[in-house]
Amino acid sequence: MTHPLPVYFAFVATVAFAQTVVPGAPSFDADHVFLFDHPVPLQPGLMLSIFGNNLGPSRGCQGDHDGNGIYQKDLCDTQVLVGGVPSGLLWVQTGQINFQVPEETPTQGTTDLAVVYQGRRSRVVAMPLGVEIPTLSLDSPARVGMPVWLKVKMPYDRESDIRYPFEVFPAGFGCNEVEVRRNGVMLSRIADVGKQAFGTTIGIGNPCGGIASVTQPNFRSRLPLHLQYRFDRPGIYEVRLTMRRNLADPVPSVTPWTKIEILPADTGARERWLAATNAQAPTSPGDLVADFLPSILGNPDEETLQLLRPYLYHPDQLVRDYAMYGLTYWPDDQVAPKLWEWIRAEGPTDATIGYFLHLRDFAAEHTSQLIEASIPYLQSNSPVVVYGALYVLSVMASPADSPIGPYLRLRACDAMIGAKDHIIQVNPEDPNNFITRLAQYRMSACY
After folding, report:
1. Which residue range is the domain that position 340 belongs to?
2. Higher pLDDT, 162 or 440
3. pLDDT of residue 201
């Protein structure tokens, strides 16, 4: 019978293990506990297969897991005990069991493995323990002035849990920590550039899991080192990665120091890379924040700032938020005039205004001009821009302590009310929020 399990649990049992169930205890040997088609040491969390006799019912049973990914530990009257601890069961049948090694399993020495079926216990089999560590390499040759992507290869051909990005702050690596040194001297990290600028540590979802749906396999299992460290000199560097399954993981996986080479800057190579990157920018929001946007952030100059510009107007909220925090890689005195130019030319968005307000002195100086510039964009056909204009008027013109004069407040209010039908027709991202803002605005600014 073919069981409905992923291909990495392909059935590789010999004819001897496929025979009909007979009375007696389960039996198996240590060299028939496999990952794919070969034996490996037991490691916490590893999914393995046991091949043997009388391991379970003749008709296979498939296990299920709960919302936390934890599999049931008793399936069709079968248990697998690792050091006496029940394992999660994915599949049980007379000749094969697929199980997950318990997280509390030690990582050194040996442990006992046994199968219990219908109350009959197999002999105890001694199994080696060990933790295979990931290996590191550059995803592609790296140069000064270009992105440096670190590729993580897991042992046993497993896919890693690294799904960048982990949060809207580009430099956030979740539960992973990367250290870099050159000539034995540790490099200083710039990882908190976005958080420090905005004075917040807001994240989204599981801090150790990715926040975007990444469709391209080659965008996975990578970390953008250039967003945490500056590689402004060519030569040999060393990197070390610490991977944790959760923030409180007591036994993280730590790689040895691995050498990487950063090649000298090459103007022609960088120009070709920028042109190709822009021409081949993905359309999927997940792929944009997993590859294209982080690639252009690490080397902030006029050219890459212009590449970032359209993504502050992107229809996807995550892309706009990521692009907004990405602006922190450029000096404020370079961003401020450009941002003001874009707002006047293309209109406001929550991303452009969010960063505009971060530039406190600049924002205070341009409050009235920003309100004036935003009013016409209430008639825009872009929901993103319409919402940005509403955001400006409700945040900067509506409050009682707004520094603008009464005439501009009334004008802004009249424009907002007069655009009501158009705004509803355009269907802004959050029409309920618009209605709430409109009611509050009318009360505070018009009456």
Report:
1. 331-446
2. 162
3. 46
